[in-house]
Amino acid sequence: ANKRIGVIVGSLRKESFNKKIAHFLIEHAPMGYDLAMIEIGQLALYNQDYDEGDSPAAYQPFREALKSLDAVIFVTPEYNRSVPGVLKNAIDVGSRPYGKNCWDGKPAWVISSSISNLSGFGANHHLRQSLVFLNMPTMQQPEVYLANCQNLFDDDGKLSNADTAKFLQQSLEAFIQFTEKVRV
Ligand code: FNR
User: Fold this and answer.
1) 184 pLDDT exceeds 90?
2) The CATH number of the domain where 22 resides is what?
3) Cα 123 to ligand 1 centre (Å)
4) What is the pLDDT confidence band of residue 54, given thresholds at 50, 70 and 90?
């Protein structure tokens, strides 16, 4: 069976540049790998009380989806120099109840992008900090920081910058190899 790689985007915006990057990766999945978007916008704000009783209906299918994955790709913008709340919430939901961390051991890749020159560096590295604790072996190189991402797409929202497209495809190939090395 094909290996399953989840793609999680840290922006809910309809025309999100990060979503467009995620779609580019999904369209360029190598043979033997299924890349699929894992939605996070439906997850109610995490509350630790949920771990002792009923939790929001969306939590269980999200956690099951995470458990079924062989690896995870995060594509995120930076909000106020850090991880957008919606993504941090999804990370927290997937990490609990205590002792049932759905992220455990899954190889991860972090891509950040922004409309400025700073390319989401702050979000990229704050996210990596959480992934250490969640025990997700995270690809170190190549690092992917996409600056001025509003200029990378054509009018149809397709990635049109050839250098970026090539870089992303090479980086995806590197991540596939990485997952094969570290997969648990
Ligand atoms: C931003 N943006 C932003 N950009 C950046 O480079 N560093 C930052 O710290 C922030 N902070 C920030 C906070 C909030 C609340 C918003 C809404 C935006 C701008 C951001 O890069 C831009 O909106 C991107 O288009 C967001 O990514 P998506 O939605 O296009 O994927």
Assistant:
1) no
2) 3.40.50.360
3) 10
4) very high
